[in-house]
Amino acid sequence: MTGMRRAALFILAVLAGAGSAAAQGTGPQNATLKKAQQAFDNLNLPQAITLAQQALTQHLGAGDQERAYALLGGAYSNQPDGFDKAMNAFRQVLLINPERTLDPNRTPTKTLVAFNMALSTMLLVRGIQVDSASFVAGQGAVPIRFTVTSPARVRVRAVSGKTTVAIDSSVQNGAVSLRWNATLPNGDPVPAGDYTVVVDASAEQNSFSAAERVHVAAGNVDTVAHLTALPGYSPLPVTEIPPRSWRPFGVSFLYAGIAGAGTLALENSQLGTGTRRELYVVAGGALVTGLVMMLKKPAPVPAQGNILYNRLLDEQLVRRNADIAQQNIALRRQVRLTVTPIPAAK
Amino acid sequence: MTRALRGLGLVLALASPAAAQRVTVGVQGVFADYRELSSALTYSGGGFAGIAQLNWHKFSGDFQVAKINYNPTSGSLATDKFASTQFDAHLRWFLASGVSLETGYTKRDVSPDFTTQNFTAIRLGIRANYGLGPGANLLLRGNYLAASKFSGGGTAPLALELGLGLSVGSASGRWRITGDYEFQRIDRKTSVPVPIQQAMARIGAAVGLW
What we know:
The structure holds 2 protein chains of 2 kinds.
Chain A: H1 2-22, H2 31-41, H3 45-57, H4 62-77, H5 83-96, H6 109-120, E1 125-130, E2 133-136, E3 142-160, E4 163-180, E5 193-203, E6 206-220, E7 239-240, H7 247-266, H8 277-295, E8 301-302, H9 304-333, E9 335-341
Antiparallel strand pairs in A: 1-3, 2-9, 3-4, 3-5, 5-6, 6-9, 7-8
Chain B: H1 2-14, E1 23-36, E2 38-56, E3 59-72, E4 82-96, E5 99-111, E6 119-133, E7 136-150, E8 155-169, E9 175-189, E10 196-208
């Protein structure tokens, strides 16, 4: 008894998952389809199948058609010998909505297997996605991703009015990642405007196309600012204060000594000796001045090493700025492309 | 007095703050000692002097005029005082490391005449100028006084001059306090030796004009 109850609960959960997976947004509009959905929810799968098939014979909108086939797929996948019918029903779902997915966490395994088998037997391009990107034309690219459900020759191109740019052509299967450099065959950047990235997949008689719209904007490339100083290098002071020196006093002592000794030597003994006050006053002044200059904080003197270093820095700065100017000339010739996807509603 | 003050104001107004002044003028107070013939004929005196200095590339020069009133010193046998007007010209050519070749002219007139000797000579020598620091300079000079002439006649085969100078002021040279010492020994000879010796000190101030 307990085992039967567990089985019933499991089936209920499974079918509820399948039903919810089949449901898309709002509920069905068609009355018969509503009844089919109720029967499905009540685990009355044969009645749900019958009612869904009846609903499909009526005039249904695309959403109700997708719901009806999804309901059939979910119901058949849980019926004995209903796997092929489930696959066929899911094929119809995918023809109506190629982007249709099932939540693997909420969908019964049988239903998922049937859905994936249906997917693998069809040629679809799903999940086409163009990233936003900004790059210098010729130096970057915008990523394009999509999934091809079965091996096929895939051609990708961007179309804007009369401009058609081939992006890629190759045999692909599964997840595909491409990069579009947004340039014309001659290397020039594509003109600014709205583009449609079209992915065409073909295999034998089957073919499928998907598209994504993007906007390409062209702008100037940022130029490099000129330098006012070399990073990491600072100019050094052009003057430095030398250490205190006895030299001023020594020289004044020497000069005063020479003057005094010279006077003594030149004095004519025949004329006697004077007071020498003239000598004492000036020589004393010289000695005092020398002493003061010796004790005084030395005046800054040019630092030749620093001056040479600063000159080298200036030369380097001029050279770097000349390089930057050349670089900016090249940058001004470049074009920055900004690619942004256009939302589907736009 | 008013004129003197106006003149000084004009001089200061003309003084510019240029880094290196080319023309400097100044006034000085002078005191001096003068001896002639023997230790019995000695004078001392004081007065005023004016100076103008020029600097141009490697050339420099100065012109000085000093007016000194000499009085006999105590113990001197001289009885007459006299006034001396001395004109000095120094012209220099810079050689290297503060050393300049110097030439010039000196002329000393006394009043009344024949109280002592009028004197003229051409000076030849060298001058060393040493910078003690910003705005402070020391100079030493030695000259041979050639072609000496005296109002009383005679020659001076040996006539030497020794000088010590001091200059302190702003680093730009706009203003300066100056001190100069000058010692002259002149071995004048007529029929007998009549030596002359003068020691002079000038203390004053100078301003750079431009």
